[in-house]
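This section describes the prediction task in plain terms. A model, or a person checking by hand, is given the sequence of a single protein chain and must write out its three-dimensional structure as a string of tokens. No templates, partner chains or ligands are provided. The sample shown here is typical of the held-out split.
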Amino acid sequence: MNNKQPQNTVRVRYAPSPTGDPHVGNIRTAIFTWLFAKNNSGKFVVRIEDTDQSRTIPGAIENILDSLNWLSIDWDEGPNSNKPFGPYVQSERLEKYYIPFAHQLLQNKNAYKCYCSPERLSEVREQRRIKKLDTSYDRKCRYLTPEQLKAIEEKQTPSVIRFAMPLEGEWNLFDTIRGGVKFQNKVIDDFIIIKSDGFPTYHLANVIDDHSMEISHVIRAEEWLSSTPKHLAIYKALGWTPPEFAHLPIILAPDKSKLSKRHGTTSVLEYRKQGYLPNAIFVFLSLLGWSLDDKTEVLTISEIIKHFSLERVSKSGAIFDIQKLNWLNGYFIRTVSDKSLAKTILEYWEKYPEIGIHPVPSSSQMIPIVPLIKERIKTLQDVKPLVNFFFSDDIQYNDEDLVQKGTDKETTKNALKRVVLNLSNIQQFNESNIETSLRLSAQEMELKPRQLLGSVRVALSGLEVSPPLFKSIEIIGRGKSFERIDNAISKLE
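The expected answer:
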């Protein structure tokens, strides 16, 4: 069986399970699926697959949708939308969609009830393991006689429904990314399609939903490739034409192992909290496994949409390089206007008060500061340590920090007094005049400019490395600057 066929209308779905915050691999799938829809003028559907109720986490659906919204991934159909293919949450589709088709499979002998207890299944697995066989189900209930079935039913024995896989032959899958892939039926077990709680497994639910929602292309992670023959078998048993498939390459850690929590953050929402911009995350993930060519490192989202195709997706795993993400985030920070970046920073501090400055400054306060730090930050988390001194008089440092190499306390104290004196004579307290005054003070005190400026920088900010000093002094203002320098002088007395 070959499932490749021409499609008239592109309809694709992103179908996460609400079992936690969406990780980068999951969101990469959403991005590739969305890009494919946009490139083909198709429809992008969001469907929540919550059939595994035991693993469903409260608030997970909201976090999934929040992640998509943050990345500006809009959907044409999805939860809370009144569209003809809904509902878009699987637990709301149980009686109407899954159960009738499960019964149809039973009636057509493509499925059967399995009454084996967990204890027996565990015993079978162990026996097969000892014999160095695969640990799949031994199909005992597939061959029960009518008399045996009747006796079991009379006892009201709990059951599941298993799909009866063909025992011979093979499946020939055409994968858009991987090309032709063959699967032997003899190595595929009779998998469960309806659990004892009455909920379908992923294998049944995703097939029925993809068919009923008229999904044309299924784009999903590589881990589902081995399950595809199970899904093809269900399509055939129900007399349906399957969609086209594309299985995305795995995301790897720098050590080329599968990316996991042990390598650091994997949640997209956590990257937001760490101060990464949505555009940077979107473009970075878009380039994990897909590329325009061998040299282009940065594209706009509109450019990616224009050029995106599944044929350009790599078969091999893509390495998650945090250094590249940091570089890319810094790049996007530098490309936005000062006003926009100021707005982004303030919104970030409002959302994460434990990270930001209290009270949150006004836009008019923040905009003049942004040009001073724009080239120095890689994430929004880098902002507060660099700018806190503009808004707080609680400047922490020791008197030793004021004394620069090649000077002493007395010289430093006198130099700072000279700074106050010369700055007091400035008529217009602006960057240019401040620079002239400070350089004059260094000359008069027979100090190197870096020696004097280093002391002034610590006195005003508590930092050894700070945003450009002269402009910083202008923003702080004459009064507060003098207060901080006077405080430094008192530390040296």
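For orientation: The chain is about 45% helix and 10% strand.
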